[in-house]
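Appendix C reproduces, verbatim, an entry submitted by the partner laboratory led by Prof. M.T., so that reviewers can inspect both the input and the predicted structure.
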Amino acid sequence: MPALVASDLDRTLIYSAAALALTMPDARAPRLLCVEVHESKPLSYMTETAARLLTELGDAAVFVPTTTRTRKQYQRINLPGPEPTYAICANGGHLLVDGVSDPDWHAQVTARLADQCAPLAEVQDHLLRVADPVWVRKHRVADDLFAYLVVERELLHEDWVKELAVWAENRGWTVSLQGRKIYAVPKPLTKSAAMREVARRTGADLTLAAGDSLLDADLLLAADRGWRPGHGELADTGWTAPAIRALPDRGVLAGERILWEFLEAVRGA
């Protein structure tokens, strides 16, 4: 039976220039590979060692990129290694099979959201009314499933995020602050549900996962084993669980370490 590896991407396996956390002397910095270009500019990176490890992992297990990104945003990424058969986008709202969204899965998800939480339009309206134009740079809706704001972090009050989280909780939604983005995501929209579906389809008897944010917590808990880096929402709050390993590594080197951990677990299975 194959092992299934479902990993978050941004700030878990791939990193923007601002998130690299290269704290060593310049001469000792790792060689980097650009894995995403946007508007003709390099945007995301991993170390060359991580790229080699991901290629090995793709040959040894069912690797499933698992992201809150929309399908369009995900398709900008050019990961090394075999092309994944499955990918999870929009926080579980889309299950891509050979690059195409599975319509049956998407229909199941949208029906579940309609039954279990407040509609997207209500959340959108609230964000437009209560977010301060002084620190909001963009309002966005992702694949008609959830909403997010792009903000100036240094101008944002943490109390505002906490108040939004309480408001959202009462309507069946979750709030997550990741870098310069504030996400409002329906609680039933989960990466874990999509991961379980891929495990069912592939017959995987071992599931491994990694992630750094609140939106990854359900994915980590659903896997047989999970890892989180030393940065991000989960690390900042000290979040952990019995089958989760909290790594000390931060920045792009954490991505490299996570891939080492995945490979060791797959080969030891």
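The domain at 3-110+190-268 is CATH 3.40.50.1000 (Rossmann fold). Additional entries are available on request from the coordinating office.
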